[in-house]
Design brief:
Structural class: mainly beta
Largest sheet: 5 strands, mixed
Helix content: under 10%
Order of helices and strands: EEEEEEEEEE
CATH superfamily: F0F1 ATP synthase delta/epsilon subunit, N-terminal
Number of strands: 10
Strand content: over 45%
Oligomer: single chain
CATH class: Mainly Beta
Number of helices: 0
Number of domains: 1
Shape: globular
Amino acid sequence: MTLEILTPDKKVFEGDVTAVTVPGTLGSFQILKDHAPIISTLEDGPVIIKASTGEEIFNIKGGVVEVLDNKIIVLAEAVVA
């Protein structure tokens, strides 16, 4: 799967991943390979990325996630340190 995390300012992350956990409005959920197509709003919280190289965490300030054909796009309002 490929993941892109975008903010209005820049592309924060792009790469191949094995799993992504996002902070959905009704609770966090995980996206795995061959996930059904979905568009969901996101709350403030961590985006946890699992890849063959390890785990990365980005804290976002709300946004939207779209999953389609093993491509995940996270449009975040901001990424905080």
